[in-house]
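Students often ask what a holo structure prediction actually looks like on paper. The answer is less mysterious than it sounds. You provide the chain, you provide the ligand, and the output is a string of discrete structure tokens encoding the 3D arrangement of the protein together with 2-phosphoglycolic acid.
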Amino acid sequence: MTRSTRKPYIAGNWKMNLDRARSLDLIKTVKGRLGDGGDREVAFFVPSIYLADVSAVAQGSPLGVGGQNCWFEANGAFTGELAARMLREVGADRVLVGHSERRHVFHEPDEWMGRKLRAALDSDLLPIYCIGETLDERKGNKTERVLKRQLESGFEKIRAEDAHRLTIAYEPVWAIGTGETATIEQVGQAHRSIRKWLVQRLGEDAANLMRILYGGSVKPDNAKELMAIDSVDGLLVGGASLQAETFLPIIEYDR
Ligand code: PGA
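The corresponding structure tokens follow.
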């Protein structure tokens, strides 16, 4: 399977934005526009408290709905946390793991990532595993090393047969919410090194099933050129996913 046979995946990450009414409006608008979806996969990662309502509205459409984080235990004394199975129970079919804000604002360590990915898969959720370097790490020529470290921790409990349910998002931390997008060369290079690692770890057939998304200041005016990069299989969009006027043109990047 190559880029041309992997279905493009356009995902919106609302983070801690919108309110219930605006969330439901946005889902209705995108659902109406998507029709039967067909040639691309579209999903929103929504605040967990809105998951049940949002997934009820999305029902009957190809729109995916996911949580933005989960904990790896199924039960227990973990005040404030949510088990993957709980997200599933209220209608989520996917989840983000290792988003840079979880890693850098809430100091989630690499050691949690493998267990979180395993818990998500075991609860029948489709995870997007987010990785990416900080500005200091890029300036210090450590990008490849950081990506490799993040992949190694995340894939601790991943087997080749999990590959078709798992997606990677490359999101350079310095490009998230800053208006600064990585250059075509930087994105291409990072994506190629991620794919090379996946091939070594899982074998060519399994690795080729996996999509690698780019995230970090994706906007309607750069979506087409990012999707034109051969090694980019989709986009993870923050700010521009909060309004139909900016998200629909990204979904329809090639029209
Ligand atoms: P941004 O966020 O598009 O607002 O830069 C991307 C993300 O954090 O997933």
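The domain at 3-251 is CATH 3.20.20.70 (TIM Barrel).
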